[in-house]
Design goal:
7 strands, alpha/beta, seven-stranded mixed β-sheet, Rossmann fold, kinase activity, thiamine diphosphokinase activity
Length: 152
């Protein structure tokens, strides 16, 4: 099953991203990200996190799952929650924006999640980020912009 996880970074505005949120079979909001979903009348399947960024009226409305331990961030709490429920395909939105340290940490977390699940991607208004194993084939077209990073 596919899980779409919305972090509390920059909320996506592109139609592609909004369609991913609207059509997600299993939509998880990380803590305060539920506020943006609620404003657009998108209902998450689950709201999870340490609940330090969610308004009390939304807590009452969505009955979020509180994971108060502070050894992982809300994104990891959401990922492992979905993984433990059988999800095997992950799309992450809202990983970037607001704070560069969070954006960088979230990018490196994708590498960690890849150890548990091979279908991992981050989608934003600006592009797509995937973790790949070598060797790989990357379908493309003439003029498409591609960046590759080796993190070994």
């Amino acid at each position: 099953m596919q899980a779409v996880i919305l972090a509390n970074g920059e909320f996506p505005k592109s139609q592609k991203c909004l369609d991913l949120l609207k059509n997600a079979p299993f939509l998880i909001a990380c803590d305060g990200a539920v506020q943006s979903l609620h404003a657009l009348q998108f209902k998450p399947s689950v709201v999870i996190g340490d609940l330090d960024s969610i308004d009390s009226h939304l807590k009452a409305l969505y009955n979020p799952i509180c994971v108060s331990e502070q050894n992982s961030n809300d994104l990891s709490k959401a990922f492992f929650y979905a993984l433990n429920r059988g999800c095997d395909d992950f799309i992450f939105l809202g990983l970037n924006g607001k704070r560069e340290d969070h954006a960088l940490a979230n990018t490196f977390l994708l590498l960690e999640y890849f150890k548990f699940c091979k279908k991992i991607q981050s989608v934003s208004d600006y592009g797509l980020f995937r973790v790949l194993e070598t060797p790989f084939t990357l379908p493309s077209f003439k003029g498409e912009q591609i960046s590759l990073f080796s993190l070994d």
